[in-house]
Amino acid sequence: MALGILSSGCATIGYYAWPDRKDTYEIEKTARVELHSVPQGATVVTSEDEVLGKTPLAYDAKYKVERTYSRERWAGVYLGCLLETGGLVGGMYVAIQNKGENKGLVGLGLATAFLFPIDCLPWLVRVASDTRKQSVEDRVMPNQVRLEARWPDARPSKATVEVPLERSVTVEKPREGTFDEALMEWAEQSDREPRPDTLYRLGHSFQRLYAVTRQEDHGLRARHFFERYLETEGVVPAKRVEVEALLIKLPTGGAK
After folding, report:
1. What gap in Å lies between CA 187 and CA 206, rounded to an integer?
2. I need a surface site. Which of 108, 125, 140, 210 has the fewest CB within 10 A?
3. Domain ranges in the chain?
4. Residue 214, by phi and psi: left (phi above 0), alpha (psi -120 to 50) or beta?
5. What is d(CA 217, CA 229) in angstroms, rounded to the nearest whole number?
6. Which pairs with CB-CB distance under 8 Å and at least 24 residues apart come from 163-168?
C-alpha cells in the first residue's frame, strides 16, 4: 500500500509539476510615431543622421518584443503513467499474496490496483490526441529613439522618444539665450576664477532662476556664488546687506 500511495504521489508530480518547454526569441516590430515642432517645418534627423523629413510627419520606429512559447512536455505524463502502472502492479501483488488470508488487504490491494490508474486515463487520452497546453507571452523591450529637430535660423533641439510607449513628441524651437543664461554657462565651463563683480552677477542670475523654477539646485548655486562674493575684499556695505538678505531666502547645505 505504501508503494502504491508513493507511486501515485510521484505520478501527480509528473502530471502537474513537470516543467513546460519554453522557447524564447526576439521579433522586431514597428510603431507609428507622430512628430511635431513649434513652430512646424523643422527638419527631423535621427541619431544615425537619417533625415525623416519636415514636421509635422509620421515615423515608423522600430522596437523589439521578446516572445516566449510555452508547451507542455509529455515526459512528465509518461513518467506519471509509468508510476501509476507501478501502483497497479503493487496493488495486484498485494491482493494475490493475501488471497484467502486477509480479506481487508485484498480489498485495499484491489482498490489500489484499480483506483490509482483512473487518474492516468485522461492523460493518456490527451497524449493520443496530442492536445498539449500551449501559451505565448510577449515582453516589450522599449527602444529609445533620439531625434534632432533643425531650423535654419536656430540651433538644433533634441528629443528622445521611448517606442512603443510614446507615440507622439513635440519639439520646441530653442529661444535665444539671455545674458543670465550665457553668464551661467560660462561659469560652468570656464576654468578661470571669477572676479568679485562676476560672482555677484552669477549669484543674482541663479537667484532669479531659482525664483522661477524653485529647484533647490538653482538656489544652492546662487548661495554658492553669493557666499564666495562676500568672502572677497572690498565688498561695499550696501551690497553686503543686500546679499545677506537674499541668502536668508535661499536653500542651505550642499552647495557646489
Report:
1. 11
2. 125
3. 2-140, 179-248
4. left
5. 18
6. 163/31, 163/33, 163/61, 163/62, 163/63, 164/29, 164/31, 164/61, 164/63, 164/140, 166/33, 167/31, 167/32, 167/33, 167/34, 168/33, 168/34, 168/35, 168/36
User: Tens digits of per-residue pLDDT, 197-252?
Assistant: 778 888 888 888 788 778 888 889 889 889 988 998 888 888 899 999 999 999 98
With a cut of 70, which residues of the chain have pLDDT below it?
Answer: 1-19, 72-132, 174-192, 253-256
* Pick from 61, 64, 62, 47: nearest CA to 169: 61
What residues are paired with 135 via a beta bridge? 70
Q: Which three cell numbers stand for residue 14?
A: 509528473
Is the Cβ–Cβ distance between 35 and 55 less than 8 Å? yes
C-alpha grid cell, residue 29: 516590430
Q: What is the spatial distance between Cα 89 and Cα 123, in angstroms, rounded to a whole number? A: 19
Buried b (16+ CB within 10 A) or exposed e, 200-222: bbbbbbbbebbeeeeeeebbbbb
From CA 18, how far away is CA 15, in angstroms rounded? Answer: 6
Q: What does pTM read for this prediction? A: 0.48
Burial 169-199 (b: 16+ CB within 10 A, else e): bebebeeeeeebeebbeebeeeeeebebebb
Cell of 56: 509635422
Characterize the bridge pairing of strands 21-38 and 168-172. Answer: parallel
Beta strand residue intervals within 13-55, DSSP E? 21-38, 43-46, 51-54
